[in-house]
Amino acid sequence: MQHGIALEDIYNFDETGYAMGLIATAKVVSRAEMTGRPFLVQPGNREWVTSIECINSTGWALPPCIIFKGKVHIEGWYQDEALPKDWRIEVSDNGWTTDQIGLRWLQNTFIPATNG
User: Fold this and answer.
1) What residue stretches are annotated with the DDE-1 domain (predicted)?
2) For 77-114, what is each residue's pLDDT tens digit?
3) Where are the domains of the chain?
């Protein structure tokens, strides 16, 4: 314990963006003499998805918050996937986090999970 703060009360919060697309149809473009990493050309549309993740210094992680681009949350987006019930799903106009989404995450995920 340092400065009266227990290790389990030290958290790291991060948001990470992902470009979602049809990687199965990707084409690799490279020169014959190229020895480095090839470039991938993605012919389809890609959407931006953001995840909010948080872990404490002992390794305990809170459930993530996944933010999709959209106006409303449509469960059919992942109906066939078995998403854990404690994952938080949000939408925003561009798939990025907003002040409102961050506040809801604090109120509905972080504070209840950490007894804050």
Assistant:
1) 46-114
2) 666 677 788 889 999 998 899 999 999 999 999 999 99
3) 7-114
